[in-house]
Design goal:
- This protein is mostly helical.
- 79% of the residues lie in helices and 0% in strands.
- It has helices at residues 3-6, 8-29, 37-65, 78-102, 108-134.
- Helix 2 runs antiparallel to helix 3, helix 3 (37-65) packs across helix 4 and helix 3 crosses helix 5 (108-134).
- 39% of the residues are buried.
C-alpha cells in the first residue's frame, strides 16, 4: 500500500472541513457583491475547492514527498483546474439547492458552507479517480 493510499482518508476529511469553512467565509464575504445566489454558490464553492486543495497539498502531499514538489513538477496541473471547475459548478448548485430546501431564504454563509462541502466532496472523488487512473 502506497503512502498516498494510507493518507487518502485524512486528505478527504481535511479537504471537506477546509471547504466548509472556506465556503462559509466566502459566502459571507461575497454576500454584498454577488446578488444572484446560484452564482454566489458557485464562486464560494470554487474558492472552497482552492482552499481545500492548497491545504491538502501542503499537508498530506508535502508529508508524502518530504520537501514539496520535485523539480519540473507543477503545483496545480491542468486536470486539477478542470476538475475544480466541474466540482465547483456541480457542488455549488447542489449546495444551493440543499440550502433552499433547509432554509428559505438561506443566508449567504449557509449557501457557501454547503456549496463548499458538496464541491469539496465532488473534487475529492474526481481526484481519487484521476489518481487511480494514473497509477
Amino acid at each position: 500500500m502506497s503512502r498516498y493510499q494510507q493518507l487518502i482518508s485524512a486528505g478527504i476529511i481535511l479537504t471537506v472541513v477546509t471547504g466548509g469553512v472556506a465556503g462559509a467565509a466566502s459566502g459571507l464575504a461575497l454576500d454584498g457583491f454577488v446578488a444572484n445566489q446560484p452564482v454566489l454558490a458557485i464562486v464560494a464553492a470554487f474558492l472552497a475547492i482552492v482552499a481545500g486543495t492548497l491545504v491538502r497539498h501542503f499537508t498530506v502531499f508535502a508529508s508524502i514527498r518530504g520537501a514539496g514538489p520535485g523539480p519540473g513538477r507543477l503545483i496545480i496541473p491542468g486536470v486539477v483546474l478542470f476538475n475544480a471547475v466541474i466540482a465547483a459548478i456541480g457542488g455549488g448548485l447542489a449546495g444551493y439547492l440543499i440550502s433552499l430546501s433547509v432554509l428559505n431564504p438561506p443566508p449567504a454563509a449557509w449557501i457557501g458552507c454547503l456549496s463548499g462541502v458538496m464541491a469539496s466532496v465532488t473534487m475529492e472523488l474526481l481526484m481519487i479517480g484521476y489518481r487511480a487512473r494514473m497509477q
